[in-house]
Fold each of these.
Amino acid sequence: MRKIIYPGTFDPIHKGHLDIAVRASKLFDTLVFAVADNSSKNPLFTVDERVELILASTSDLHNVSAISTQQLIAETAREENACALIRGLRHVSDFEFEFQMAMMNYHLNPEITTIFMMPDEKYIHLNSSVIKEVTKLGGDLRDYVTKDVFDALKIKFNI
């Protein structure tokens, strides 16, 4: 069984993430979101909330699950018996950082291959920081997040 890990903070998950997850889930038997539990990033949502939002946002995908992790993603991939990591690239500027991470992950776990995928062009400008900032300032981003995420953002920002 081929399993791929989709690591990230996902604070919150948005349709750019989901676009990549849907396509990757068609290429692998199982896709596991590995949500980084790193409080130093000062996330808006708790790790449990982020896992719940991912599960709600992917409920129509039968081969997708979500876990949280506090360890190196190469180790999480080993424990999950994954053969690959999927990472999204939006712009050329993302490539240098992602390339470095892919090489380090390979060094830490040579059984893992990192696959890069670009989201649909309608999501190329999205990142979780933009989603939070625009929502906080009253912007309507329902086209870019699921209803569950939109409702959770409204609650967090008392909108």
Amino acid sequence: MLIEIATTDFETTQLAVKGGADRIELCTGLSEGGITASAGLLKLCRKKFDLPIYPIIRPRSGDFLYNKDEFEIMKHDIRYCRSLGFEGVVLGLLNINGSIDQDRVQRLIELAYPLEVTFHRAFDRCVDSFAALEQLIQLGCERILTSGQQPTAPEGASLIAALQKKADDRIIIMPGSGVHTDSIVELAKQTGCVEFHSSLRSLKDSAMQFIHPSFTNSKESYTNPGIVIEAIQLIKQKLNAL
């Protein structure tokens, strides 16, 4: 059993490592679904942490239909991540009709090699999940991050279980979204999956002593992203007990 933690900055990555995360999905803008981290953040996290880190390759928030320029950005970011020696990257591209953009996904997989590739929750916006599953297997993706085409993995557990069975060890199915200490055991039992993805996001108060009176109630001004270390440890304990 393995737990991947999505982190959004150096501090949350450090907390996830301390909590015992098995792998990191590194991004920024997690509230927007995750966007590619800055060059500085990528470089420092690679330097400081030894566990597997998979940066997300996503040039913007919104849909997963990318134009030519956005695709060039993705290629550049993959080259940079490969040069830093990451273990893998996380990406996803769709066609206008909701199918997998097989041609460009294949080109990115080839460009990323020998880095492994996770296809992210663009999968949950696919028109046909089982056709997409077979296509991603053929393309050589290592795993699929999915909430079972529902807002959260517990809601999509039945489809995740069906995908896990259909995958038949040809690709890893990794539930994500709504994965936390209260849902992890039932989700593992329902789906039969062995890798899980969570952010376990929290907020911590800023260390600022001066609080501008005009922004007293502004959370974004005086709280910072955090991760509860104990929550990671509890999830790992529950998984190891299965």
